Amino acid sequence: MSDSINKKSVVGSSVFYPVTRLNMGLRYVALWAVMMLANFPVIVFAQGECPGIHVNIPNISNSDGAIACALFESSEGFPTEFLHSATNIMFIKIQDTQARCYFLDIPPGTYALAIIHDENMDGKLNTNFIGVPTEGYGFSSGAKASMSAPSFEDASFSYDGGNVGLSIRLSY
Questions:
Q1: What phi, psi does 118 have (nearest 5°)?
Q2: Contact 91, 66 (CB under 8 A)
Q3: Do 38 and 59 belong together in one domain?
Q4: Which domain of life is it from (predicted)?
Q5: Distance from C-alpha of 116 to C-alpha of 70, rounded to nearest angstrom
Q6: How far is CA 164 from its chain centroid?
Q7: In angstroms, rounded to a whole number, what is the distance separating the alpha carbons of residues 131 and 133?
């Protein structure tokens, strides 16, 4: 009985022996091929950024507080009443004196952005006793504040529903 078991194990091991003796280089080529084919659908079907308004805020004076990005679709409350009137609001943590806001799933239309560096995180743009801002601020379309905040029309831009990349520098 033990002789038949030994014969079966010898036959079984001789069948698998050539498979385990593959050249190591051939094994690596096979492994590489499997890995590439496994990632093929990801590579072929990968898409770019999601459609939306992508805002980059470079050169922030410091990393204290947060950046408030407020997207308005009308002049109502622009830009001072962003907590009450903005269509979308994001508070973003500052990393290495930069921040990025992403507004996704926004329908086509006319919009304006107001950006505030809320250093003390009180939810508003702080000013001194004569009304001059003491925190950073910026607006879309290169709109500048002179004696007062710019109008919605000055800061507005058209959005067609695709990808829009904006860069807004803050004024201090």
A1: -85, 85
A2: yes
A3: no
A4: Bacteria
A5: 8
A6: 13
A7: 6
**Three-class SS state of 58:** coil
Strand-pairing partners, residue 67, are 92, 117
Whole-model pTM: value is 0.70
Do 38 and 82 fall within a single domain? no
Average pLDDT score over the chain: 82
The parent domain of residue 110 ranges over 52-167
**39-96: pLDDT as tens digits:** 555 444 444 568 999 999 999 999 999 999 999 999 999 998 888 899 999 999 999 9
C-beta separation of 116 from 171 below 8 A: no
User: Which amino acid does the sequence have at 108?
Assistant: P
Nearest to 113 by CA among 91, 84, 142, 133: 142
Distances (CA, A) of 113 to 67, 93, 136, 159: 13, 18, 14, 12
